[in-house]
Amino acid sequence: MRILVTGGAGFIGSAVTRLLVLERGASVLVVDKLTYAGDRRNLRDCEGRPGFSFLQADICDRARMAAAMAEFRPDAVMHLAAESHVDRSITGAADFIRTNIDGTFSMLEAARGYHAGLDAEAKARFRFHHISTDEVFGSLGPTGAFSETTAYDPRSPYSASKAASDHLVRAWHETYGLPVLVTNCSNNYGPYHFPEKLIPLVILNALEGKPLPVYGDGSNIRDWLHVEDHARALVTVVERGRIGETYCIGGRAERRNLQVVETICDLLDARRPMGTPRRGLIRFVTDRPGHDARYAIDCTKMESELGWRQQQSFESGIAQTIDWYLANEWWWRPLREQKYSGERLGLITQK
Ligand code: NAD
């Protein structure tokens, strides 16, 4: 398979690219602008491998996207490039509107032109897979879970921009017959997660004995999925998903934010004792505006229709992730020193 992956230098896109190149032997063209969140080092295991190539480009540049498709001739586009951090969307939404909405429009138009020019066999094979988030569904009460039929109710600039992009993708299917797939996934964690996000921020602040600020009272609930399980789910969908369908992907691992932070403290105390327990570093800070109370995903369709199962429990996945950060200071140290210190916002952040 030949796959064009947008946002492949980011957290999830690089996990997808590693899986495709190293395990599936696919040919992959990564298209990435290399914003603050993109990092070529995330792809170091793929560099130089047969079939791997990289194009630094902005997805909003439609002519460039069309040319990249015409030259690379993908069987599928996996579209992950996005502005992805909710807190940044609250302080400045413009990049989110541009990349997540205009950028998706640009990718859809480039794909539509490319698809129209394919011969019948290639046309039947082609698919445009749009990768989205469960945040488009809004906030849950104490019970229930999001599924493929949940109505959209985005509440942050980030989730609103992702919701808009989901709608565009479905419209391009209904109106123009573009063969699309949409996935909505819960919170990811794992290796190469940019240190502004909740789990890496807490691991690194806790490692360095810095305060661990927790929004509100820490009771907000997220459903956590290891990034490699998400990558496997995405490759399953692009290979076997039914055109025009949406698939919800989740970890069946609901945890309160405070629980997540305490778990990290305890695991780090066991690995690198500090003298006093790290739970003492926790500080409760003013809540994020419009902070969604609870997310949970019902991933029955992924399991029953496509046979996907997550392989990592939250407990094993979080321990593995902590060990990865302990072993890979070469990766995070420059990011902490040059891009995000973990102190700038003074907040705990998610997604
Ligand atoms: P990320 O911020 O780590 O990576 C985004 C990548 O997109 C970066 O490499 C960045 O350089 C690139 N990019 C940004 N703007 C671009 C542009 N205009 N042109 C080309 N490249 C550009 O994000 P992530 O966490 O890996 O998320 C990837 C996708 O998955 C996003 O669409 C996000 O909405 C979705 N998602 C994320 C999560 C999560 O928990 N992180 C959960 C569900 C869905």
Count of discrete alpha- or pi-helical segments spanning 4 or more residues: 12
Number of strands: 12
Shape: globular
Reported CATH architecture = 3-Layer(aba) Sandwich
Q: Which topology does CATH recognise?
A: Rossmann fold
Bound molecules: nicotinamide-adenine-dinucleotide
Helix and strand composition category: alpha/beta
Largest sheet: 7 strands, parallel
- The ordered H/E elements are EHEEHEHHHEHEEHEEHEEHEHHH
Mean pLDDT: 95
**Any idea how many domains?**
1
Query: What share of the residues does DSSP label as strand, in percent?
Result: 15-25%
Output the CATH homologous superfamily. NAD(P)-binding Rossmann-like Domain
What gap, in angstroms, lies between the N and C termini? 30 Å
Task: Provide the low-confidence segments as ranges.
Answer: 344-351
Reading off the top of the CATH hierarchy, the class is best stated as Alpha Beta
Q: Helicity, in percent? A: 40-55%
Query: What value does the Rg take, in angstroms?
Result: 20 Å
Topology, element by element:
Layout (H helix, E strand, L loop, with lengths): L1 E5 L4 H13 L3 E6 L19 E5 L5 H11 L3 E4 L6 H6 L2 H23 L3 H6 L1 E7 L23 H20 L3 E6 L1 E3 L8 H10 L4 E4 L5 E6 H14 L5 E4 L4 E3 H15 L10 E4 L14 H7 L7 H14 L1 H10 L13
Parallel strand pairs: 1-2, 1-4, 2-3, 4-5, 5-6, 6-10, 7-9, 8-12
Antiparallel strand pairs: 9-11
Helix pairs in contact: 1-8, 2-4, 4-6, 7-9
This protein binds nicotinamide-adenine-dinucleotide (NAD).
List keywords for this structure.
351 residues, alpha/beta, Rossmann fold, 7-stranded parallel β-sheet, 3-stranded mixed β-sheet, 12 helices, 42% helix, 16% strand, globular, disordered C terminus, binds nicotinamide-adenine-dinucleotide
